[in-house]
Amino acid sequence: MSYLTLTAVGGDLGATVSLSPDPGASPGADEVLIAVEAAPINHADLLFAAGLLGVDPELPAALGGEGVGRVVRAGANADPALVGRRVLMLPTFRYGTWATTTIVPARDVVIVPDHVDTLQLAMLAGDPATAYTLLSDYVQLRPGEWVGFNLANGAVGRYLIALARRAGLKTLGVVRRDEAAEQVRRAGADLVAVDGDDLGGRVIKALGGATLRVLFEGTGDPGQIAELVRAVEDGGSVIAFASATGQAPALPLDALFNRGILLRAFFLPNWLRDTPRERLERVYAELADLISQGAIGAVIEATYPLDQYQAALRHAQQTGRSGKILFTPHPD
What we know:
- The protein is of the alpha/beta class.
- It is built from 12 helices and 16 strands.
- It folds into 2 domains: about 1-125 and about 270-325, Quinone Oxidoreductase, Chain A, domain 1, CATH 3.90.180; about 140-265, 3-Layer(aba) Sandwich (Rossmann fold), CATH 3.40.50.720.
- α4 (about 125-135) crosses α5.
């Protein structure tokens, strides 16, 4: 039994992570003990380890934000019916999922079906929920309208394409490389643009007189935002869901004052904290059903056991990856 811990914030991630033996603690009254089946390495995990996520690590910090597993023991105040059930572990970053077993507050687990693919379920709590919420909670969208997003070849982008298509929306995906553009086209985006000179002008021309109702922004790059917001309708919205550059997203003064573009932000831990339990369960049940239908899903590039964590972390930080990297603590 073992788990991965962060011993220092920032620096070389390979040097600040160690594999620790499981101390064998029992769950508290309001907690459950979970045997972890699979847990992805997300960009948010890397930001957490660097101290840049907005959730401060309490060293030594257990790593891993989300995952799926089976409840093997319940505390005195937790629902005993959870024992034996497969559950999502919600990414609050207050416990670790890169582990053979982990102890989680019972309020931070959601029961999921046994028949759905384990690896896809392990990634359900974060990126699919982000894409679902971006499309449903900020702008009232109607079939035939356009939504745009950058980081389109990432996991959130892939889920946005699939969910938008089911809703009858048209999608513009923005990427930084020609190879990524072809991936996004194959994923089903209606239009794909590659970052570069006159990005905004090229997007406006490609839209052929249409405008974006909303732009989902994940780079924090002020230059790219300034270009893409040219294609957003007056009074439209820019919703920041990440910052790949580490910069704070910002709108040009003309877009903000003269055109009335609204800038808002989505942060998954806050959504998990503020969303009523009934809705959380409903959203995750709907997303799990879509996975079982094959309607949504992430591309998986590799899985690793915990004792190969250094190779897994190096792989997860490679540019140009085509899919997700996951830990499978109990490989067959």
